[in-house]
What does this fold into?
Amino acid sequence: QAQLVESGGGLVQPGGSLRLSCAASTSVFSLYTIGWFRQAPGSQRDMVATITRRGTTSYADSVKGRFTISRDNDKKMVYLQMNSLKPEDTAVYYCNAEFGSVSHYWGQGTQVTVSS
It folds into this structure.
């Protein structure tokens, strides 16, 4: 009974684009802040972007101007559009659902590799 399911990861060349998708259950999508986090080998898991149920967005400085997070209320989906990708963007990307300042759910993760 997964509450969050990610898809869209893969291998892309530097400067390329990729769009990640997070499918959420109805209750989670309606009430929770949804975010994307990433974890590179040997590094901690860091926030990339978040979007509230009202559509307010927030981005890490490292991706500002390159990544865009959005919601589709009909499909119950959250997307992360990634443009101008760099090798340092390589990581496992995780979808997260937060409520009451607590991270309640995590997706299984999807690998993004940026390499020539």
About this structure: The first helix runs from residue 26 to 31. Helices lie at 26-31. The mean pLDDT is 95. The CA atoms of residues 33 and 53 lie 6 Å apart.
